[in-house]
């Protein structure tokens, strides 16, 4: 079941839907509101940045991603987002909406699980023109707070369909269900992360052999299933350390399902190259 992640207060541009669009000339928050939200935070909503012209750098989960002309960056709820020090390019659209809005759409969009581990998507010129047209329609609809939400949802559905198609374009293979199995793997890991599920249990849940699961995960992520789960656990640890959500290594380890804090510390250093204390110090 999806968790509802509400927008910050007064964030939405529609009276009935939690959604907001921003362009160079529209939708910017006041300095006071932006200051309260902060420039580094754990996202409560889905975020999209589509650059029409120019370039910018955007940090997601402590990794910096450069976004250029006809490229789109998306970030997901619970990821760490840091707004860039420079502008978003000379022409762009930014869009945000939360789970409440997403739950009202007529279909699901697998790209939002980011199965290919790529949060930047490049669009061919024809697709970029279509994407811009949909953004423009949404901009017009959100210029008035009392717009019928069904109109907004219809065009949001079209926008996400374009993005979903472009996301999978390079990896599409007819009659190949590996991507569905990998999405199922990622979803199972997310829902059971701190339980430390075994590879055997996951394979049984997905009705595949352990060998098949290994090859599927390796194909899409470049990692073994065990490495994937380990990296996801350490990413969650980094997120919590970033926001100082735990006061001790022991408490953080237990919250993430580790029975042995010393083992967690060794694993953290192996994955990040830093001790927990060293990582925390670098954030100061």
Automatic annotation (TrEMBL):
> What are the protein's UniProt keywords?
DNA-binding, Transcription, Transcription regulation
**Is Transcription regulation one of the keywords UniProt gives this record?**
yes
Identify the Gene3D superfamilies for this entry: Homeodomain-like
PROSITE patterns recorded for this chain? HTH_ARAC_FAMILY_2
Q: Name one Pfam family in it.
A: HTH_18
Tell me the GO molecular function terms: DNA-binding transcription factor activity; sequence-specific DNA binding
Q: Which InterPro entries match?
A: Homeodomain-like_sf, HTH-like, HTH_AraC
**Record keyword Nuclease present:** no
Q: Where is the HTH araC/xylS-type domain?
A: 183-282
**Name the record gives this protein:** Helix-turn-helix domain-containing protein
Q: Which organism is it from?
A: Dyadobacter chenwenxiniae
Lineage, opening ranks: Bacteria, Pseudomonadati, Bacteroidota, Cytophagia, Cytophagales
